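Incident log, structure service

09:12 report received: a user says their structure output differs between two submissions of the same chain.
09:20 pulled the input from the user's history:
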Amino acid sequence: MARSVKKGPFVAGYLLQKADKARTSGRNEVIKTWSRASTILPQFIGLTFGVYNGQKFIPVLVTDNMIGHKFGEFAPTRQFSQHTAAGADKTANKSE
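09:34 re-ran on a clean worker, output below:
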């Protein structure tokens, strides 16, 4: 279920403060966040956020196409290990 329009998008309060501080200082530093559920706002364009995925901080450079999405969408929490060639050989032999 979507969030109510009346409430507006969810953004952690400290993210807005840190984004404003980074804009005024002019430094291009990574803003660390654990709030994967926060929505990306237009004020965040051009800033780099370090989104925590449970193990490390994934750097996410915010672009205009990301507005309205959540930070968690850009920092995957699971790592895909490719299927091995040995596993493919076993399945090929079973079909014979």
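09:41 both user submissions now match this output. Likely a transient worker issue. Closing.
09:42 reviewer note: The longest strand covers residues 48-52. The helical segments are 13-25, 85-94.
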